[in-house]
Amino acid sequence: MCGIFGITNSEKASESCYYGIHAMQHRGQESAGIISADSEMVYAHHGMGLVSEVFNNVNTLSQLKGDTAIAHNRYSTTGASSAVNIAPLLFKHKESFIAVAHNGNLVNLDKTIKKLENNGALFKTSTDTEIIVHLIVRAKEEAFPDKVSAALKQLEGAFSLLIMTRKMLIAARDSLGLRPMVMGKLGNSTLFASETCAFDLIGAEYIREVEPGEIIVIDRESGKLESFRFSPKTSPKHCIFEMVYFSRPDSRVFGDNVDRARRKLGKNLAIESDHDHAQLVLSVPDSSNTIAIGFARRSEVKFDIGLIRNHYVGRTFIAPLQSERDLKVHLKFNTVKGVLEGRNVILVDDSIVRGTTLKKLIKLIREAGVKEVHVRIASPPIRHPCFYGLDFPTHCELVTYERNLDDICRYIGADSLHYLSIDGLLNSMAEPKSHYCTACFTGDYPIPVTDKEKAQDNYINEI
Ligand code: SF4
């Protein structure tokens, strides 16, 4: 999963990018980069680490000159977490350059990669993003936007894309709209971002979603905007997990407020599950806060703060190594003993992936003196990996692997466990049920993945 941001016709293009990806730090913490351009030159700075670590020198941004810039923060789902894969990617091409920022994962690439390699393509990264650039430059069409369109027609999978050249800034989104992307305005500048929280920080106005299957081209000199489709309109399949966990609650994603959806998830969870003997509702902060508030309102059980999160430690879910994840759980949470002691509590969480974090949290809560811990999860059991850009582990790493509900309850150490039903999940969303991808819960993948991908759960050999 990644965050992308782009802006054109701006006197503060790189500065806006900096704030944009800073606001979307939750989407990827491994590396960050900004590429900017004026009419003559292209400028780039990137590195491993958080946005504030990569851009820790005030002079860096002033050296990223130009009216247009794109930016990226990365959490690797294809290709290793290494310096060579830091995005946006930049390529010299003829008299110009191509810079690309990509959020999402492409699938079924075997044939495309083989074909490109047989045609002499050399890859300098192990990301799927680079394949897009190879397809663009090899397209037979004359005009650059037509080349982009021809390339995107060949892709399968999830992609929200920003492409910058000497002449234009292009935004595009896969035909199912799996990953979010919004367009905004700030004075005469046009902006694009994965989430609207990136606009709020710089005072930009939300205009609309980049439509699934749409290509938006902005001429950097005239500011003229053109929009066309590279694929026919079809029913979208938005990643429902963006609404459950990934996006910030203060963002507008897929045309809906994430906060609204999370409160409704909590409400539906309270309707579906037992809460008779509970004295307190607790959330696993921060992504479950609004879900727990929705639960408490509906159940009329008091909400309280029993877990405190240390905000200076990254998200456990997106730390790529198991050992780091274990350590971070302890670094990240502490209990408020006065709130917990002697109580029967309902612990609300958005989802369970591996179960390791929740298991440790329940142990922490018990050590603080609670009598009973009843876990309520605002999504159904995750039983299948995600191939479209979220780091859901392979089948055997999921807590549901070879475990039924009772086994999972025992494994995490809870007194009871209830998951929200798939209907409860879908009824919490603003759009019709058919507009969401729920493959990690149901196994019903909107874009088929090959058996090889399913078997390996990873399809590009890492460098
Ligand atoms: S499989 Fe799950 S995480 Fe992946 S895109 Fe679909 S809903 Fe989102």
Write the layout of secondary structure elements.
Layout lengths: L1 E7 L4 H11 L7 E7 L4 E7 L2 H4 L3 H6 L4 E7 L14 E5 L2 E8 L6 H9 L10 H10 L5 H10 L6 E5 L3 E6 L8 E5 L2 E5 L3 H4 L4 E5 L4 E6 L5 E5 L8 E2 H7 L5 E2 L2 E2 H15 L7 E4 L5 H11 L7 E3 L12 H11 E3 L1 H4 L3 E6 L6 H12 L4 E6 L27 H8 L3 E4 L2 H5 L9 E2 L1 H4 L8 H6 L7
Parallel strand pairs: 14-23, 17-20, 20-21, 21-22
Antiparallel strand pairs: 1-4, 1-10, 2-3, 2-4, 5-6, 6-7, 7-8, 8-12, 9-10, 9-11, 12-13, 15-16, 18-19
What is the CATH first-level class name of the largest domain? Alpha Beta
If classified by CATH, what would the architecture of the largest domain be? 4-Layer Sandwich
Category from helices, strands and their pairing: alpha+beta
Q: How many helices?
A: 17
Largest sheet: 7 strands, antiparallel
Give the strand content: 15-25%
Distance between the termini: 20 Å
User: What is the average per-residue confidence, as pLDDT, rounded to a whole number?
Assistant: 91
The distinct bound ligands, ions and cofactors come out as: iron/sulfur cluster
Helix content: 25-40%
Radius of gyration: 22 Å
